[in-house]
Amino acid sequence: MKRALQMFLALGVVLLFAAAGPATAGDGWRTLTPPQPLPAPEATGNVAVNGANIHYALYGSGNTDAVLLLHGGLGAVEDFGGQIGALAATYKVIAIDSRGHGRSTDDEQPYGYHLMASDVMGVMDSLGLDQAAIVGWSDGGNIGLDLAIHNPDRLTKVFALGANYQTSGLRPSAFTDALIGAYVGHAAAQYAQISATPDAWEAFSGKVFAMWGGQPAYTDEQLAGITVPFMIAAGVYEEAIDEAHTKRMAELIPGSQLLLIGNSSHFAHWQQVEAVNTAILEFLAAE
Prior knowledge:
Blueprint: H1 2-19, E1 43-49, E2 52-59, E3 66-70, H2 84-88, E4 92-96, H3 113-127, E5 132-137, H4 139-150, E6 155-161, H5 178-194, H6 201-214, H7 220-224, E7 230-235, H8 243-252, E8 257-261, H9 268-271, H10 273-285
């Protein structure tokens, strides 16, 4: 596993240029379509929690119901550039950079989904949010799972896109997949632009890959005990998470919904922006 992760990291920047060309009609899932530009936030802030300063950006401040956006591993709030405008029209949107990611700082602790979920709780507490919905992509969806397991009273709903609950759900081919390698290159370039420690990519990404090597590790029983309304979503051409694993998650979480998004992959919210936004809004609005 460690060797595969090292190869994955080494290939990332090279594959960015090989896989990021323009999509042709009907095969947008084959291309790493960059996310739409991040809208200017109404406010930003940093919350000191668990030894790190967690950065957030606020949108739709005049709205009542809160939605937290949790990005994928190696990414940043920029991951949701195509979703923020649609959501902020109705919801108070708080987009959070996970520890060490984006504009958030880090400490010496190894990364873990439970630690990152605790960071999210710290941001909620600082902002006076008793409850919020979660829209999480990839690692952000995994953090949503942890919150639903350990802090269900703080959540209203979770929309998890491209998430997994055990490492066995990860496709072995993910470590050699060109599109995922392109994402790693995209994330490296983004990190260099926005991180307070732009030269620390190797150490930072190594901590992320180490987490992926052993987490998540939630049990079937933990998922079966979730009481928060869930949408388990994935692209029909998902190249990171096995579809059977995605379907198993939806079967285990009581009352959860399953959504497979056409002509999209692990990066569905970049490739099929309108379809994903519609699905999120309908899920959040449903009684």
